[in-house]
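Hi support team,

I submitted a single chain yesterday and got back a structure, but I'm not sure I'm reading the token output correctly. Could someone confirm the output below corresponds to the sequence I sent? I've pasted both exactly as they appear in my results page.

Thanks,
R.
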Amino acid sequence: MFEGISINCACFKGYSLETALQSISELGYKYVELAGMKDYCEFVSPLMKDEAVSYVKHLLKLNQLQVSALSAHVDYLADPESLQWLEKSIPLATKLGANIVITSPGEGDYDHRLETLNSLDSICRVYGVTLALEPHGSLCSGSLLQEAIDKANTSNVKINYDIANVGFFGGYNPLDDLAPLTHLAYVHLKDHIGGKGIWNFPAAGKGELPLPKIINLLKDKGYQGYLSAEIEFTPDGPDSFEHIRDSARISFEYITNLIK
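Hi R., thanks for writing in. Yes, this is the structure output for that exact sequence:
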């Protein structure tokens, strides 16, 4: 049995957090993946004062939502400021009631990445948080992520398996790539239209990925974590606010029926 159906609130980028959370709640979700992505979508931020954190918690309670994860995407190998953003996102997640922080695996020297993951792992252990790496860039498959995690020899660094990213970035088949993985902490149930490099991520069930087979595979693997919808539209973005709401609604209804 899965922990619950969540949604990355970054699909509401450009609108207020109040509007995003109210809409997500009205559509039936009980869980939300909060976006704290540096310089991209900062609904929350590790730079927030305690008063701002309290206000976010108030909004969550008001809308009867719990936080499934904090999405803190940043290239933490790019510069010290980006690394600090990710480091400070770990305690922020606990303040908001989450124990998973999602980020990309970073780009740069491989050995430096492993050393940095070890350092981040130490912080995660202190706060009881799992850092979930998402397929991106040079580590664009679950198998590549798992290999890096094994080499880093970490306990609290695992995988956020984004079933669309593995095809978009690397042309991988998500069923083949997912099957051998053992370090799953979180899943983005994101749909995709087109092949490698085609940016088209519609509502769940409206793309070309074999989502029912993915669900069955996750069940067979004993995965019991969250299924988080992530809708990133096309390069032109959503047509309107209603387009966002409709896509979020369709995703929730589709995933709900899929896991019955």
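A quick pointer for reading it: The first strand starts at residue 4 and ends at 7. Let us know if anything else looks off.

Best,
Support desk
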